[in-house]
Amino acid sequence: MKLEPILAAAVAGESLDDATLAYLLGLETPGELEALFRAAYTVKLRYVGNQVHLRGLVEISNICRKNCYYCGIRRGNTNVARFAMNREEILEAARLTARFRYGSIVLQAGERNDPGWVDFIEEIVREIKAIDGGKLGITLSLGEQTLETYRRWFAAGAHRYLLRIESSDPEFYATLHPADHRHDERVAALGFLREAGYQVGTGVMIGLPGQTVEHLVRDLRFFQKLDVDMIGMGPYIVHHDTPLGRRFPETGSDAKRQLEAGLKMIAVTRLLLRNVNIASTTALQALAPDGRERGLLAGANVIMPNVGDLAYRKGYLLYENKPGVDENADSARIALERAVGSIGESIAYEVWGDSPHFAARAGNR
Ligand code: 5AD
Ligand code: SF4
Predict the structure, then answer these.
(1) CA dihedral in degrees (165, 171, 173, 178; nearest 10)?
(2) What is the spatial distance between Cα 172 and Cα 198, in angstroms, rounded to a whole number?
(3) How many CB atoms neighbour CB 242 within 10 A?
(4) DSSP string for residues in 249-285
């Protein structure tokens, strides 16, 4: 295949077949990667512009009922001190998000579905909604729940939800999770979210042991079929206190390759999905100090700076060398503004930053 005409067709919006997607994900030389990222950036500018949308990220608890083989805060990892922020701590982070004019907040935690937790989230969403007359957009990332729970949290004021599918391939998913973590239930949960009225985000990890380009192509088709509004995905990074980390300790030791794989996936997603929001995730930054900026240049348009209290950051290590554990929210804000400015982009303050895709989807109903 010849790269330039393929990229020109992709930028023009011609449909991309599986072989072409696989070819793009397999590019390797610096010149080819540069051309791919440039094409994705062109599409990004056309559909979502060069303003970065921020979501203040608060990791409210590392207590999790699940045992995903790759994750540092899995239930089975007894080396982790468990925490749950209290109401006042979460509200403080929300007020900080508002004061920073980030426009939007994300509450993320390990998965829990006990009634006390479901009530607590409902209440806290309501209280965040009351700050400054409901100015903050609220995104939740709290795992699989029932339709009823999703409805209650939506009614309380949350309007976006992130639930990564991790891998769209059921067989591959089964190699990454215990048998009771069912792929079909996760897919069903994504359907519930849509049914409950949320803008829905999903995503996968990239560079997992055993993952092939065909898996990633299938992931891209999954995003497309689900008609998602947001994508959050990033490179897999080893955590040695996990079954996957112990079994494949060397996976991802080539940081440059892992980073490039993540950037390629962002770029191809942008070429395919056009007007969705795509996050430049912390995992990119874990692999290179300028990883998030490079994500923006490869087609991402959302960054989720951590606004939670520093005291808890070390308790939320999904993977090793997670950046930002020593950086308070204020200095992170200043560094981020500088980083975004350094690539000629700017930050859109005080807006929810919904994806144009959502507006288009809502308008078509
Ligand atoms: N490397 C990269 N990402 C990870 N996640 C969990 N463990 C890891 C890891 N070792 C991601 C999962 C999850 C999100 C919150 O963090 O995709 O959905
Ligand atoms: Fe829990 Fe999420 Fe980690 Fe799985 S990836 S163990 S659900 S926090």
Answers:
(1) 130
(2) 28
(3) 21
(4) TTTT--HHHHHHHHHHHHHHHHHHH-SSEEEE-HHHH
Report how far Cα 111 is from the mean position of its chain's Cα atoms.
16
How many whole angstroms from 71 Cα to the centroid of ligand 1?
Answer: 6
Question: What span, in angstroms and rounded, lies between the C-alpha atoms of 204 and 236?
Answer: 9
| Dist. CA 59 → ligand 1 center (Å) | 13
| Among protein residues, the one whose CA lies closest to atom 4 of ligand 2 | 68
223 contacts 230 by C-beta, under 8 angstroms: no
Cα separation, 80 vs 63, whole angstroms: 9
* Best residue among 205, 241, 304, 320 to mutate for probing ligand 1, ranked by most atoms within 8 Å of CB: 205
Dist CA 94 CA 117 (whole Å): 19
Superfamily grouping for domain 3-363:
Aldolase class I (3.20.20.70)
Check pocket membership of 237 for ligand 1, CB cut-off 6 A.
yes
Nearest atom in ligand 1 to the alpha carbon of residue 318 is 7
Residue 45 to residue 84: CA distance in whole angstroms: 39
Per-residue pLDDT of the chain (365 residues; tens, 9 = 90+): 899 999 999 999 999 999 999 999 999 999 999 999 999 999 999 999 999 999 999 999 999 999 999 999 999 999 999 999 999 999 999 999 999 999 999 999 999 999 999 999 999 999 999 998 889 999 999 999 999 999 999 999 999 999 999 999 999 999 999 999 999 999 999 999 999 999 999 999 999 999 999 999 999 999 999 999 999 999 999 999 999 999 999 887 789 999 999 999 999 999 999 999 999 998 999 999 999 999 999 999 999 999 988 888 888 898 888 888 878 888 888 989 999 999 999 999 999 998 899 888 877 65
Contact predicate 318/59, CB 8 Å: no
Phi-psi region of 305 (alpha: psi -120 to 50; beta: other; left: phi over 0): beta
8 A C-beta contact, residue 33 and residue 264? yes
Six token digits for residue 239: 């955590």
Q: Which two tokens stand for residue 356?
A: 């144009």
Q: Which atom of ligand 1 is nearest to the CA of 166?
A: 17
